[in-house]
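Quarterly update from the structural biology core.
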Amino acid sequence: MAGIERKGSVLRSDERQVVAYHEMGHALAASSLPAMDPVHKVSIIPRAAGSLGYTLQRPTDDRYLISTQMLRDRLVVLMAGRAAEHLAFGQVSTGAADDLGRATDIARQLVTRFGMSPVLGQAVLERQQAGYLGDSLLRQERKDYSEQTAREIDLAVRGLLEEAYGRARALLEQRRDDLDAGARLLLAKETITPEEFPALQPQANEPATYVLVDATK
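Predicted structure, tokenized:
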């Protein structure tokens, strides 16, 4: 599921530490937020797809609706890798590039497609259009707004990302002992499960509040 192991890849010791904290940040954030799927496995073994590690979550059931809170919590989990790096080392690396891209996409859709921004209201501002001959690979976004609205969208997206990073940072500060212990265990074993590190088990079970959105995109 995570891709083929890159057996010939050997990370430097300092890079392995960064990856260990990064992935443990994702895992602890996911285990702390009740709307998120449970953590199944965490690894710092490089993969053929280009990742230096991964945090695997598995859904417990089928889900057809995604709530505002779930989307915001997903942003927290994505930003938690970078937050863990900064908390542990006082700086960040390029390892969060993919996380930031995914988080930005979610935040933008939350604002422009799902009508979940209190500032911009319940309006669809961007629609996906099929490109030439309906090829899904050529899908383009149709933008129905002014330059002023575009600025407001940019500010709303940035606000969501900054809020998510702040939540991730605060969460990991509260669980700093788990972060350090989990990173050490990852460095020793390379791959761990919640059975081996109970701090990865779900910390709460409150139900999420759902609102109707398109969960198929």
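The beta strands are 39-43, 54-57, 126-129, 140-143, 191-192.
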